């Protein structure tokens, strides 16, 4: 090995961790010490708060925090907070919002709000025997055993919605599940769900052990493998949509409204049938979703996993968005499975998260679901609008221009020159380099 393992790294002070890293991996270069420290917050209490969000923290990693205004959602106007580093995401969302603001805006519907979790267990017993035991004994006991855990959630209008026994023995020998659905109201609910499920596992063991329905051999075969929520929530769905007459689809690219609608629908259909395109198509959707998820302190890994699982729910990976152009009406929509919260976690701690939720009018969890679906739909509309008209690079590279110039060390005067230079041209990396060298050679 080229480096030595470290013992007790988590017990070192923050400075001790940095000293060890710089010494062991970065040849003692003090510049790296400075890079880490320049991202520390001057407010010591705020810095400590951020450090305690995670483990072994040595600095903060900044992302741009932007605003996409003019979102008309269910008759109310919003400005969406977006934490994202990718060029053109905020611009595309803003442009889409502006496009639809005079056409009725975005409309949303909460289709369902159920979240899921499972107790996974192995039990060498006849299925009908276990099902009878579940129906006439275990199910009631599971509710009773979790009453203390669910009391506060039930007082807020949520709790355990249903518990089912699922036979998976055809896919894995002796494998069963206790599948539970939950309503966690305004919280994401991960800790609540997992606490309920862990109690399920304990109660399952206790009830099987004391039951006279099973032989000793059957009882000894029981193994509770794990108790865990699922981030796949196909019954926690929000729909966001836009629609207007095709004759009102005025686009500034020069093509007719009818051609724009036709090409746009073709682009969506391709994503519905071609996984290679659907992957990039849905990545664009999640550009919009994740940016607001992060800004509101929610779990973007969970939203990503759920969305992509849902996109492949029939065995082929497909578009999350859909389009029709029937009877002279253009309609574009998304059904997005997403589980988020507005209480608990970072929502009560991170100052920018609190700002984001205040900016959005302190929405309920369902209200935030609607906003997230709209953000994803708007981002996808903006991307497809570019793809079927001017091409994606014209807008994207114009937004990426400053990144290229910063890498080249351009001055402010030079940056202004390039903004003017590319006002009526498509930005390309090659052309930026060529013009930069020409400018510097003068």
User: How much helix is in the residues?
Assistant: 40-55%
Oligomer: single chain
Mean pLDDT, all residues = 94
Which class best fits the helix and strand makeup? alpha+beta
Largest sheet: 4 strands, antiparallel
Strand order of the largest sheet: 3-8-10-9
Rg (C-alpha, Å) = 27 Å
Total of helices: 16
Q: What is the distance, rounded to the nearest whole angstrom, between the alpha carbons of the first and last residues? A: 51 Å
Runs with pLDDT <50, length 5+? none
C-alpha geometry:
globular
Order of helices and strands: HHHEEHEEHHEEHHEEHHHEEHHHHH
Q: How much strand?
A: 15-25%
Give the total of beta strands: 10
Can you put this structure into words, describing what you see?
This protein has 442 residues and is an alpha+beta fold. It is built from 16 helices and 10 strands. The chain has helices at residues 14-25, 30-37, 44-51, 89-100, 127-145, 147-155, 190-210, 216-220, 257-273, 275-295, 300-311, 351-359, 365-387, 392-408, 412-421, 429-441; strands spanning 65-73, 76-83, 107-110, 115-122, 159-167, 175-183, 223-230, 237-245, 321-324, 329-337. The strands form 3 sheets. Strands 3-8-10-9 form a 4-stranded antiparallel beta sheet. A hairpin with a 2-residue loop joins β1 (65-73) and β2 (76-83). α9 crosses α10 (275-295), α10 (275-295) packs antiparallel against α11 and α13 (365-387) crosses α14. The longest helix is centred in the last third of the chain and has 23 residues, at 365-387. It is globular and about 90 Å long. The mean pLDDT is 94. Pathway: Metabolic intermediate metabolism; (R)-mevalonate degradation; (S)-3-hydroxy-3-methylglutaryl-CoA from (R)-mevalonate: step 1/1. This is 3-hydroxy-3-methylglutaryl coenzyme A reductase. It catalyses: (R)-mevalonate + 2 NAD(+) + CoA = (3S)-3-hydroxy-3-methylglutaryl-CoA + 2 NADH + 2 H(+).
């Amino acid at each position: 090995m080229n480096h030595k393992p470290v013992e007790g790294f988590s017990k070192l002070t923050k400075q001790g961790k940095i000293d060890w890293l710089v010494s062991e991996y970065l040849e003692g270069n003090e510049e790296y010490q400075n890079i880490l420290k320049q991202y520390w917050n001057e407010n010591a209490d705020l810095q400590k708060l951020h450090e305690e969000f995670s483990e072994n923290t040595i600095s903060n990693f900044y992302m741009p925090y932007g605003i996409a205004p003019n979102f008309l959602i269910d008759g109310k106007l919003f400005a969406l907070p977006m934490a994202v580093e990718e060029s053109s995401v905020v611009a595309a969302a803003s442009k889409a919002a502006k496009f639809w603001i005079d056409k009725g805006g975005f409309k949303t519907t909460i289709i369902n709000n159920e979240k899921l979790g499972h107790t996974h267990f192995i039990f060498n017993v006849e299925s009908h025997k276990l099902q009878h035991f579940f129906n006439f004994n275990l199910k009631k006991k599971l509710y009773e055993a979790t009453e203390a855990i669910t009391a506060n959630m039930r007082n807020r209008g949520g709790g355990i919605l249903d518990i089912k026994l699922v036979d998976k023995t055809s896919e894995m020998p002796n494998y069963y599940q206790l599948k539970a659905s939950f309503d966690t109201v305004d919280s994401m609910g991960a800790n609540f769900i997992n606490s309920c499920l862990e109690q399920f596992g304990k109660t399952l063991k206790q009830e099987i052990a004391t039951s006279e329905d099973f032989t000793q051999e059957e009882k000894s075969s029981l193994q509770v493998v794990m108790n865990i929520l699922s981030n796949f929530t196909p019954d926690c769905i929000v729909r966001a949509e836009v629609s207007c007459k095709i004759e009102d689809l005025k686009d500034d690219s020069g093509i007719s409204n009818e051609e724009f609608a036709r090409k746009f629908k073709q682009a969506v259909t391709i994503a519905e049938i071609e996984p290679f395109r659907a992957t990039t198509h849905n990545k664009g959707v999640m550009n919009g979703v994740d940016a607001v998820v992060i800004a509101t302190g929610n779990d973007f890994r969970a939203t990503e996993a759920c969305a992509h699982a849902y996109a492949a729910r029939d065995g082929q990976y497909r578009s999350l968005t859909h389009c029709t152009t029937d009877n002279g009406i253009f309609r574009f929509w998304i059904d997005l499975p997403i589980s988020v919260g507005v209480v608990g976690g970072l929502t009560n701690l991170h100052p920018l998260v609190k700002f984001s939720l205040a900016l959005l009018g302190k929405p309920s969890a369902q209200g935030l679901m609607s906003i997230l679906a709209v953000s994803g739909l708007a981002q996808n509309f903006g991307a497809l609008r570019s793809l079927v008209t001017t091409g994606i690079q014209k807008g994207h590279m114009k937004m990426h221009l400053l990144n290229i110039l910063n890498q080249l060390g351009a001055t402010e005067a030079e940056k202004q020159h390039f903004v003017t230079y590319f006002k009526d041209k498509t930005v390309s990396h090659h052309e930026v380099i060529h013009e930069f060298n020409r400018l510097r050679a003068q």
